[in-house]
Please model this.
Amino acid sequence: MADKVKVVRESVLSQKQVDLAVSALMKHVQEKEKSKPSLLGDQQVLWLILALKKIPAPDKKPKRIAISNSLHPDDSDVCLITKSEGKPVKELLQSAGVTSVKKVISLTKLKKNYKSYESKRQLASLYDLFICDDVIYHLLPKFLGKAFYTRKKFPIPVSLKKKDLKGEINKVLQSTYMSLGHGSCSAIKIGHTGLTEEEVTANIMETAKGIANIIPRGWKNIKSLNIKTSNSVSLPIYNSLPERPVAIQSESVKKPKATIKEKKQKKRKVNEKENESDSEVEES
Model:
């Protein structure tokens, strides 16, 4: 009988290993920038690649993990997609003191003005972050599709009914998100090259702790953790040890009972042999 897997909700990630990997990755990025500088001077996103042993059931919405160092600069342009028309929502944001949202698009306008792939691609490139009214989150994959998914720009759901709407949106800006159930691996943003190594390490440690608290079976379900940029190789920061093999007791294999037909055939052969023996005796 297989041993029952113990759920571990604490992270066992080594900060020393994370420090080494982050330092190596940042140096790699700096060397690449020297040899081939970016014309736009864009900051590169840093990813934590999570590999699971067992794939959980798909989640309808991404899981939020709070981190100390925001993935988004203070001057980030945020676009909000809503169910209602834009004007009432803009007034709601203004009354709540929300200044980070630069654009509000209703679902109606999204369907009308952004039908083609190219128009969706351009929209995705205009803003640093997309958020949406959580009541329409399930409808957006149909209208945004590949243009947003491939750029990791899919909107993050937010409840516009929260009393502290400004605080709710600030939580989005101060968090990273994880989607589960769509494969054994998940890519989670944990920083960018504009952060210091210490800030990136802190984000990774906090994200690892958050993962252990969210996924089924906790830390025991983590196969590996790696960090990378969109263009670099993956650097390992954790690999699980092989699980203890479980001995399987072999059972004695019982021979199947002979059928009536097989019994008759066996008896016939015995009789034939006896007859042959009798004939040999008579001849002698």
